[in-house]
Amino acid sequence: MIPEENKEIEANYKRYILERPHIVILGAGATMAAIPNGDKNGKRCSVMKGFIENMGLSDLLKRVTVNTDSDNLEEILSELESRPECQRLVTELENRIISNFSEFEIPDELTVYDYLLLSLRSKDYIFSFNWDDLILQAYQRAWEITHDLPQLVFLHGNIGVGRCPSCNAVESLRNENCRKCGHELVRPKILFPIKEKNYKDDPYIKNCWDGFLDLLSRATILTIFGYSAPQSDVMAIEAMQKAFSSTFRRLDQIEVIDL
Ligand SMILES: [Zn+2]
């Protein structure tokens, strides 16, 4: 027979394990895996390498001389954003990226994003570095089955996220007006992973990062799915180093899903 006090210890321990969040980090590779044959209309997504050609951004980039020899869009944007004379071009690129990603529609068949959402609970978190809103589209249809879904947080902003400037509510930009107070929703800045830490400029993004760092320290399982932590993203790399350090978590589980 188990003594009473041991039972209580065991119950506390179980609660401690069961109630801590499972955190999933998504990168471009996860969206690729969600629509391996293209979206509902056959439109394909590419990872950051080769993104410029596939997104039709080459003509815009021909207007400037870029010093980095990388063809990774994030590296190029990181450079352009640091050059004051390139700000108009950065805005144009941002608009082009937004309109391009807005075309993606989730296929009618279930995707890996649907399964991921349904496998997690409301105590869990998905932190996405992606600008596309496929996971939000999957979320909206999962909501019709269950409300026990993970929290979605977009560390680089997302084309589908709206924030209410009046009451700070965060909801789908497709709603157009805030469901709580009726104010028109605004899209938080689409963020480029640049060397300078500009995460504090946008209140939504700042909140996201503060929450991310705090939750990483409490997660029981950390899953990294299709995310490569580009070198230009200093803040993300710092967070990953913290997450992987052996003093930080000795007993917990980290899993990496890549090709
Ligand atoms: Zn509001």
Commentary on this structure:
- The mean pLDDT is 85.
- It is built from ten helices and seven strands.
- It has a five-stranded parallel sheet with strand order 3-2-1-6-7. A two-stranded antiparallel ribbon has the order 4-5.
- Strand 6, helix 10 and strand 7 form a beta-alpha-beta unit.
- Helix 7 crosses helix 8.
- The protein is globular.
- Bound molecules: zinc ion.
- Zinc ion binds next to loops.
Question: Top keywords for this entry?
Answer:
two-stranded antiparallel ribbon; alpha/beta; 5-stranded parallel sheet; 10 helices; 259 residues; Rossmann fold
- Give, in order, the helices and strands: HEHHHHHHEHEEEHEHE
Q: Report how far the terminal alpha carbons are from each other.
A: 49 Å
Structural class: alpha/beta
What is the helical fraction, as a range of percent?
25-40%
The share of residues in extended strands comes to: 5-15%
Shape: globular
CATH fold title of the domain at 20-40 and 108-257? Rossmann fold
- Number of DSSP strand runs: 7
Strand arrangement within the widest β-sheet reads: 3-2-1-6-7
Bound molecules: zinc ion
CATH architecture of the domain at 20-40 and 108-257: 3-Layer(aba) Sandwich
Major sheet characteristics: 5 strands, parallel
Average pLDDT figure: 85
Indicate the radius of gyration in whole angstroms: 20 Å
